[in-house]
Amino acid sequence: MLWDLSVAVFLVFLVWAPLGARAAGRPCLCSALAPSGLRVNCSSLNLVELPRGLPSDATELHARDNRLTSVSPGLFDGLVGLKKVTLSGNPFHCDCGIQYLRSWLLKNRDVVAAEPTCAGPSAVARRAVADLGDDHFSSCGGCGGGAYDAVVGGMLCCLIGLLLWSVRLAKRSAVTLHIHEGHSGLEADCLRSRRPKHRRRSARSEVGWESVTCRDVEKTLGDMEILPQVLDTLHKKHGGKIKAV
Q1: Which positions, given as ranges, span the membrane (predicted)?
Q2: Given CB 3.0 to 4.6 Å as the disulfide criterion, which of 8, 67, 192, 199 pairs with 32?
């Protein structure tokens, strides 16, 4: 019995300092529970936020009747052994800052003795925090909010500008085409664009270069007489500037 009392006093001493740092001289009280466990009592201490550094082996957390408007994100993540939590009696402000508490409550409703309610805004006053729908947070930004959106927007603008500059540079680029005697048997069909829209346009065309077959070209044109048509095809279909040397 004396040993158990000594252990309880030692635990209270270990957690007294960190839990009292934000309690304005009125620290949360910790007491051992039989057969095992730890109760952390932060109720009625006029707290504006729960202290960090709550003992990870806590099985009960009581924080009712304070001035809590929200719970810091991640505060409860390390308290995996909680079996009872009381948060009622706090003026929770249910704006974007309440999302973490709402998500935690939805996953741990079985350990919450009395569901905390919203004190504001007026549209959701007296409504249970866990009952807030996803549409209530539709205007809340994710991944860091406005700063993150600004950075991503700037990166996208730079990327779009780079792409536009690349397209403009490609259109201004000159292509040097060398045709030797070894290419005299080149078929006209090989010069046609392989893009789907160009193939469809070619199928609809009934006159002009589009309707000329490779066999017709071979019959009517000489070996090098195809060069002007090659240059014209590359210029019109691929939008590049062709320079013959």
Answers
A1: 147-167
A2: 8
Q: Are 115 and 88 in contact (CB under 8 A)?
A: yes
Are the beta carbons of 222 and 228 closer than 8 angstroms? no
The maximal CA–CA distance of the chain, rounded, in angstroms, is 114
pLDDT in tens, 126-176: 999 999 999 999 988 755 444 456 666 788 888 898 889 888 887 776 655
Residue 70 tokens read as 């929200």
Alpha helices in the chain (DSSP H): 2-20, 99-107, 146-172, 196-204, 214-220, 227-238
Sign of the alpha-carbon dihedral angle for 143, 144, 145, 149: negative
| AA letter at 100 | Y
| CA–CA distance, 229 with 209 (Å, rounded to integer) | 8
Contact predicate 132/124, CB 8 Å: yes
CB 77 within 8 A of CB 103: no
* Residue 98 burial (C-beta neighbours within 10 Å; 0-12, 13-18, 19+): buried
